[in-house]
Amino acid sequence: MAGHSKWKNIQGRKNAQDAKRGKIFQKLSREIYMAAKAGGADPATNAALRLVMDKAKAANMPNDNIDRAIKKASSAGENEHYDEITYEGYGPAGVAILVYALTDNRNRTATNVRVAFTRNGGSLGETGSVSYMFDRKGYIAIERSRLSVDEDTMFEHVLEAGADDLETSDEVFEIYTAPEEFTTVRDALEKDGYTLAQAELTMVPQTLVELDADQQEQLQMLIDKLEEEDDVSEVFTSADL
């Protein structure tokens, strides 16, 4: 993963996400509902629920919203159901795109995702067409401005915690883990006193595709249209933005 920095993409899109905070909360509520419905309302015994609750807190989602989604999943007679669907496709310059959705209407979501692709310079592919280009990883970011730790010391700490890799820039330490080790590494680093700026399970592209300015603008428009869909929860690309 040398040379791949998720942090730049995370920071670059923060303002856009702030502007769409209400819709983000709505999507997170759906994810919390699904996790609690499947594995129970206690995050201590439901790892999936704990992960999405952490994700919600990182997005500054109010605790009342989180609690309401959990209570809804726990309500007697609650019959709301969502399907988890993955769409795969291509953007400008052949950039690989993965789209994760939670939907109560597969036909509606499939139509909306297809339209977003075709009207914004992309094309929807078949199942398996691009997913092999990504690896599921745990991702943790720690801002260096908060630390007096050098790269060698941090590398020792993350390896001891069970991480796979460390990427370093002037701004941030980026730590990658196997999916099954993510919570262990995250908890170990927090126990050691580190403040985590970002911690999530994500999809990391094996190869990055470089785009010119026009292609980047077109891809960003495609991503924005996909993320505007109520049923779309996450979008990953292989673009080097």
From TrEMBL:
A GO BP entry: regulation of DNA-templated transcription
Domain TACO1/YebC-like N-terminal positions: 5-75
One GO CC term on file: cytosol
PANTHER family linked: TRANSCRIPTIONAL REGULATORY PROTEIN YEBC-RELATED, TRANSLATIONAL ACTIVATOR OF CYTOCHROME C OXIDASE 1
Residues of the TACO1/YebC-like second and third domain: 82-238
Protein family (similarity comment): Belongs to the TACO1 family.
SUPFAM superfamilies tied to this protein: YebC-like (SSF75625)
Name of the protein described by the UniProt record: Probable transcriptional regulatory protein UC7_00291
Superkingdom: Bacteria
Assigned keywords, A-Z: Cytoplasm, DNA-binding, Transcription, Transcription regulation
